[in-house]
Design brief:
Helix content: 25-40%
Number of strands: 11
Distance between the termini: 20 Å
Largest sheet: 5 strands, mixed
Strand order of the largest sheet: 7-8-9-10-11
Structural class: alpha+beta
Number of domains: 3
Length: 332
Amino acid sequence: MPNSPYVGLWTRLEGFRPSELADLISKRRAVRLGLLRNTIHLVTARDCLALYPLFPTTLERTLKTSPFGRNLVGVDMSSVVAEARVLLQDKPRTFSELGKLLHQRWPDRDPTSLAYVIRHLVPIVQVPPRGIWGKSGQPTWTSAEHWLGRPPAAKPSLEKLVRRYLGAFGPASIADVSAWSGLTGLRAIVERLRPGLRTFQDERGRELFDVPDGPLPDPDTPAPPRFLPEYDNLLIGHDDRTRVIDHAYRYVIFTGTLLVDGFVQATWTIKRGRDAATLTIEPLRRLSKTDRLAVAEEGERLLAFAAGEASQRDVRITAVATSPPQAPQLRR
């Protein structure tokens, strides 16, 4: 969701203001594009150009195995890419617009599949007002090179990507790095980095790696309640997600989640009316009285941030969910 990065930064940074991120997007210093695992991420312009060249092989493989790729067997993909680049440089377009225009040249092929070739094979970014706090708009795309005025990096570095990952999510295993990035064959990269990393073993005997100055807080350090947006990287940053979320509740990552003592204990949603906003918190397990008070207090802070314009703001904590959520239904 376009507003997810704002909540993700608010929950991590003291004094964060939405205008700070909105300005970066408007000034083309931050962009939204398909990157790791071919999902949409918000990154700095510098990271967009430095990281994207690491993923073409993965993205090409994803396209070939997708329904879009199977609809285009026999089509010269390089010709589709060349045509789409011209169209996107002419002006930013939605996938629907792009697909219709490409369909004029390939009339016997599915327009949506033609458009999604670009989603997999070209670094394309969403342009404002998409992603701007308080505004809305259809996802409209152009090439990263055109939008940022410079090409992707000629010599991308997997070593830097691994170190960046460990700085955020270490200690972690090689399988964790692979699950987060969607890349395979990373053992050789980690082995080259080994002399400059710290190593550990977890309770299952798996080797974990971390940057030399990575913090290791005491296990008894208090972890206050924290609201996370949909599909937050904390929840999907490891191969073994049970370090932060019970396996039975793995599908709640598609909505807002709440950490209590560093573990996912509830989901949350905000509903807005004309002059009112209600934050509904649905616990996955029973919360103690102390935890409920702390959650309610943090919930009031979230509402003040996300719906500060509402004259009436209400935080509601419901009864404990009676059964784990099921996998979301995919639209065909």
